Automatic annotation (TrEMBL):
Protein name, entry field: VWA domain-containing protein
SUPFAM superfamilies referenced in this protein's UniProt entry, alphabetically: vWA-like (SSF53300)
InterPro entries membership: LolB (IPR050458), Uncharacterised_CoxE (IPR008912), VWF_A (IPR002035), vWFA_dom_sf (IPR036465)
Domain (VWFA): residue spans on this chain: 213-372
Gene3D superfamilies from the UniProt entry: von Willebrand factor, type A domain
């Protein structure tokens, strides 16, 4: 095994692997990287339980002076590639709860915006003074801008497909209907030549349909476990806002209701207003959404929650049943984010599915596609 490979394994496995790898595999830069990694991962209490720490470890106090978070951020920025820096920052905040990464002005001025830091800002902004909030907003703006650019493309693609496909007498190449042409000319297939001879080509009209007004009501559970879905709901609402034929509402809830529809075009302001945590009264939120419905058969309510109901579950089921029976499309989304990996109360979710709600998890692009398909019918 080459020396660079041995050094990488030594950095991955930590100080406890020193003897097993034969020792002496760290260059000067490797030693600096090892110290930066050790500053973070030596906090893992499981190391002592598993007997991983070496008896001669510097944790006895014979090592270098303790780094501050600012020093550590400066070091990892100098020593590691961008992807590794983002992982280290995420672990610092989410795994080891080093909150000064997002609450200390000196640290915030150096930190690289990322999705993990955005989640940390939303969880800790109630601890921040005005100066820190101003710096933290930089993280929110940078990450939201990146998400907006990505999702806006997905939304445009979804809605560009909501077009009429009527037969057309205008024979333009871009309007060539491949499926219908093949289907209706299969009788001219010649097996010996393995070819279909086209006698009658077909074309379609791509004139956009007239879109009657639809309502899309996003009901977002702002409990702490739903932070990724809160972020993507705010961005999704902003991308849907202003689309032809779509009236967008954004409502956050815990045990109280916060209607953010007036700020839906500015997801940064929306996220800075969200208060994560607290209880959950899903039924109350659904009742509020029901009051917003103008035309039931032209309304989509996306209930984004983990379905752990702290209010009245029987009332929740009854409200959703009534909405479905009047023609409203109800989506029960256990997650709305890029991963769409849900963690939810399956019992409540199954009961909602039983009264006609569509229950599952979606990425923002999939939700946009569902909305586009619904209003384009």
């Amino acid at each position: 095994m080459t020396e660079p490979a041995l050094e990488r394994w030594r950095l991955v496995l930590g100080e406890a692997a020193e003897d097993g790898l034969g020792g002496g595999h760290l260059t000067a830069q490797g030693q600096s990287r090892d110290a930066a990694l050790d500053w973070l991962y030596s906090r893992d209490e499981d190391l002592d339980r598993r007997g991983v720490r070496r008896p001669t470890s510097r944790h006895g106090g014979d090592g270098p002076s303790v780094l501050t978070t600012v020093d550590w951020l400066d070091q990892i920025t100098r020593l590691f590639p961008k992807e590794t820096i983002e992982r280290l920052q995420r672990d610092a905040v989410e795994r080891y709860q080093i909150h000064d990464v997002v609450t200390d002005p000196a640290v915030l001025a150096r930190v690289e915006p990322s999705a993990a830091l955005l989640r940390a800002v939303l969880r800790t902004k109630h601890l921040m003074n005005p100066e820190v909030l101003r710096l933290a907003r930089r993280i929110v703006e940078a990450v939201v801008r990146e998400l907006m650019e990505k999702l806006a493309t997905e939304v445009r693609q979804a809605f560009s497909g909501a077009k009429a496909r009527r037969p057309s007498r205008f024979k333009l190449a871009r309007n060539f209907d491949v499926r219908r042409t093949l289907r209706e000319n299969l009788r001219h297939y010649r097996p010996d030549e393995r070819r279909v001879y086209i006698e009658t080509p077909h074309f379609v009209s791509r004139t956009r349909r007239h879109l009657d007004q639809w309502q899309v009501i996003l009901l977002v559970d702002q409990s702490g476990s739903m932070v990724d879905s809160v972020i993507h709901s705010a961005v999704t609402a902003a991308c849907l806002w202003g689309l032809p034929g779509v009236k967008t509402h954004l409502v956050a809830f815990d045990t109280e209701i916060v209607d953010l529809s007036g700020e839906v075009d500015d997801p940064v302001d929306v996220l800075m207003r969200v208060q994560l945590g607290g209880g959950t009264d899903i039924a109350r939120a659904v009742a509020y959404a029901a009051q917003l419905v103008e035309q039931p058969r032209r309304t989509i309510i996306a209930l984004i929650t983990d379905f752990y109901e702290g209010g009245d579950p029987e009332r929740l089921i009854r409200l959703v049943r009534d909405l479905v029976q009047q023609g409203t499309k109800v989506l029960g989304l256990a997650a709305l984010d890029e991963a769409a990996n849900p963690d939810f109360d399956r019992g409540t979710a199954q009961r909602l599915a039983g009264v006609g709600a569509f229950v599952g998890a979606m990425t923002p692009g999939e939700l946009a596609g569902f909305v586009a398909e619904s209003i384009g019918r």
